[in-house]
Amino acid sequence: MVRALLALFLLVMPHLAFAADLSLRPVKVADGVYAVIGALEGQTYENDGLNANLGFVIGGDGVLVINTGPSTRVATALHRAIRAVTDKPVKWVVNTNSQNHYWLGNAYFQRQGAQLYAHKEAVRLMRELGTGQLEDNRNRLKERAAGTTLVFPSNEVDKAHRIDLGDWAAELRHFAPAHTAGDLVVWLPSAGVLFSGDIIYVDRMLAVIPISSTTGWIEAFDAAISLSPKVIVPGHGKLTDIAKAKRETRDYLVLLRESARKAVDNLADLNDFVNKLDQSKFKHLANFEELARRNANMTYVEMMKEAF
Ligand SMILES: [Zn+2]
User: What is the H or E stretch that residue 274 is in?
Assistant: First the structure.
């Protein structure tokens, strides 16, 4: 009998685990401002693909959501977390870039009646890459991707846009192509809080990807920092300040660029450069092993394009 019950339990248990609701624990950043800090490692089934930061801001007229996660499941969990703090409706959503973990939860919030915003280049990339992103996510998240569909933001932002939340405002800004072509930050001047999107990474190694521009990235970083935020919610990593953001994002980008520039000027071989570049100053950051060499490679290729 006991054995039969155990067998039944083992049969049912995985399904119970799948059905279990995802519960997110937002951290309070300032009055009315919350962030959900994602995992530092890559996207996995276990972490629900939630390896980037989300947030929400409560205004007099409604709630602004910053990034919707990689699935309807994560978006639904985010909404549950919002409801635990306020019963105001979610009226606005901003996707800080076109990467899957920032916008594939859009369909859920559109159904709640929210207006969706992203940079115009981000919307272009979403249209270009969305189908592939959705397919990758279905492979990775299996049944946890259920119900996830593509919904593109209909409000395209160019340089700046202001959203009036009722008693205060959120400013959306685009400075330059950086981690992607369409990075936006969300600046809350009256709270001194900056949601930097992927212009700032801390605690983990940033990723230079084929569509990144390290030139624009440093320019965007400096422009974002010139707002003098008291608290930064980075794209990846815990809440941070300007000093740590400089050490873990800007200093690293400068190392990559200066050494890649030298290598290209000296006609150094790509593999030699990647193998010999000393990145040990950043070894404490998560994902160092996976990303250090790839970042050097990407930056070299970018410097090559700039030089010729
Ligand atoms: Zn990201």
Answer: helix 270-276
Task: Give the Å distance between the CA of 216 and the centre of ligand 1.
Answer: 16
- Beta carbons of 36 and 26 less than 8 angstroms apart: yes
CA dist 135 → 28, 142, 210 (Å): 34, 10, 20
How many A from CA of 244 to the centre of ligand 1? 18
Cα(248) to centroid of ligand 1, in Å? 15
CATH class of 21-241: alpha beta
Apex 215 CA angle, 36 and 253, nearest 5? 60
Q: Find the 43 Cα to ligand 1 centroid distance in Å.
A: 10
How far does residue 167's CA lie from ligand 1's centre (Å)?
A: 30
Q: For 170-228, how does the pLDDT look when each residue is reduced to its tens digit (9 = 90+)?
A: 999 999 999 999 999 999 999 999 999 999 999 999 999 999 999 999 999 999 999 99
The contacts of residue 127 (CB under 8 Å, 6+ apart) are 152
CA of 214 to the centre of ligand 1 (A): 15
**Are the CB atoms for 136 and 70 separated by under 8 Å?**
no
Read off the pTM.
Answer: 0.93
Taking a 5 Å cut-off on Cβ, the residues next to ion ligand 1 are 52, 99, 198, 235
Residues 6+ apart with CB under 8 A from 12: none
